[in-house]
Write a structure and sequence with these properties.
- This protein is mainly beta.
- Helix content is 11%, strand content 52%.
- Helix 1 runs antiparallel to helix 4 and helix 4 packs antiparallel against helix 5.
Length: 417
């Protein structure tokens, strides 16, 4: 199936759809199995603001903050299908026009439109899906069961001298998300664990030339096809000091180390080294180590939630700050990637909403700082339908291998019961 991915016009349209629908991660940023619109709007400052089902990917302790532990309800929340899409600013329209209005929907036409409309930086697009169910009983732990998928496509111009050369990669992850969390009797401490068994497919089509392959078909050019499986383990803690403004400290480890891999390329230090994290198994290209490991991430953060009375309602302003990914070196191995730029480590966010300070419902506005740039977002719940939007700036690579920034836009929806 994967070997024939780029083989004909039908599959070219599939590639185009994948290019049209996608989310954050780049050559200089760590990939994510799931990217939350809420957290993207808040500058990805997530470790202390986690109090929904997406906590399973950021800080599983937040699952315990989703519901009243004294509640007798067995099923607390169901999300379906919970899908999101993302693309760089200015790139949805040219690809969309090709897919839905142009008579020629071949891969060369799609790439030519991207090339002519979007300049020299890479195009990153991704689709996400995460249906889930949250359950629990009175004075019992909170459980989450879900399945998720994320497909990321990067189309990169190879050289500024010949705009017809492209390097295309697709990274697809599908898996299960299982979480368990609980709170102390006083409610001040929450703790949780998540397990994410998953399969990942990574394929690469290098040096595709529009001039040499104006009517491209077949499998020539596919230079890499990796298939791996792994289990991501995350653990987290939340400590709330008092009811007044809810000052909260959060700590989490993502991709807890289950093994180490030698000669892994660190995209920040530009060196190969021994890196530890979530070890993967499978068939990879000879000498390739990138796809055999999800590097460990340490995360720490603080938040407060000032509350103000406005008529019969309470206005909540949640302020959060976070440092991630943090890493350290010991015994000749890196636990996580070191030398991550400070602007990518320090994150800050705010969320403004009415109602209960721990249980969001209705309308929310968000803002933050990520990559030293502003992020923003909003969400609205109408009966059982939730609609969300977010925008942030990510790192990108240009055709001449220099790096820069580009604004990414995300949108998504879900039904919720």
């Amino acid at each position: 199936m994967w070997k024939n991915h780029f083989s004909n016009k039908k599959n070219a349209v599939i590639v185009g759809v994948s290019v049209l629908l996608a989310t954050p991660a780049a050559a200089q940023e760590l990939p994510r199995d799931w990217t939350s619109l809420r957290y993207a709007g808040m500058g990805f400052a997530t470790v202390t603001t986690s109090n929904d089902s997406e906590s399973v990917f950021s800080n599983p302790a937040g699952l315990a903050r989703m519901r009243n532990p004294r509640s007798r309800r067995k099923v607390h929340e169901v999300h379906f299908p919970r899908v999101s899409i993302s693309a760089p600013e200015g790139q949805l329209q040219p690809v969309g026009n090709t897919l839905f209005t142009a008579a020629d929907k071949t891969l060369p036409t799609i790439l030519q439109n991207i090339s002519s409309e979007t300049g020299n930086h890479e195009t990153l697009v991704q689709t996400n899906a995460f249906p889930s169910i949250v359950m629990g009983g009175k004075s019992k732990p909170t459980f989450l069961f879900g399945t998720y998928g994320s497909s990321q496509v990067i189309v990169k111009r190879e050289t500024t001298d010949d705009p017809g050369f492209f390097d295309i990669t697709r990274d697809t992850t599908v898996g299960l998300a299982l979480g368990i969390a609980n709170v102390s009797r006083a409610g001040t401490i929450a703790y949780g664990l998540s397990v994410r068994p998953n399969a990942r497919y990574y394929e690469r089509l290098m040096d595709y030339s529009l001039s040499e392959n104006p009517n491209y078909s077949g499998t020539q050019g596919i230079t890499q096809l990796d298939r791996t499986i792994g289990v991501g383990l995350d653990a987290g803690l939340l400590f709330t000091a008092a009811d007044f403004w809810l000052p909260t400290f959060g700590l989490a480890i993502r991709n807890a180390p289950t093994g180490c891999v030698d000669n892994v390329f660190n995209p920040y230090s530009k060196q190969t080294t021994r890196v530890c994290g979530s070890r993967r198994q499978g068939a990879t290209q000879e000498g390739e180590t990138r796809t055999l490991l999800d590097a460990a991430e340490l995360v720490a953060g603080l938040s407060i939630t000032p509350r103000f009375r406005m008529g019969r309602d309470r206005l909540n302003i949640r302020l959060s700050g976070e440092a991630s990914p943090l890493a350290f070196t010991t015994g000749g191995a890196e636990y996580g990637f070191t030398e991550v730029p400070l602007e990518q480590v320090i994150k800050a966010g705010l969320e403004v909403f009415f109602g209960h300070p721990l249980i969001f419902s209705g309308v929310a506005a968000r803002g933050g700082i990520f990559n030293s740039e502003l992020t923003w977002g909003a969400s609205i719940e109408l009966s059982f339908l939730a609609i969300e939007y977010a925008s942030y700036v990510r790192q990108t690579t240009f055709a001449d291998e220099t790096t820069g920034k580009v604004r990414q836009h995300m949108a998504g929806f879900s039904t919720r019961w």
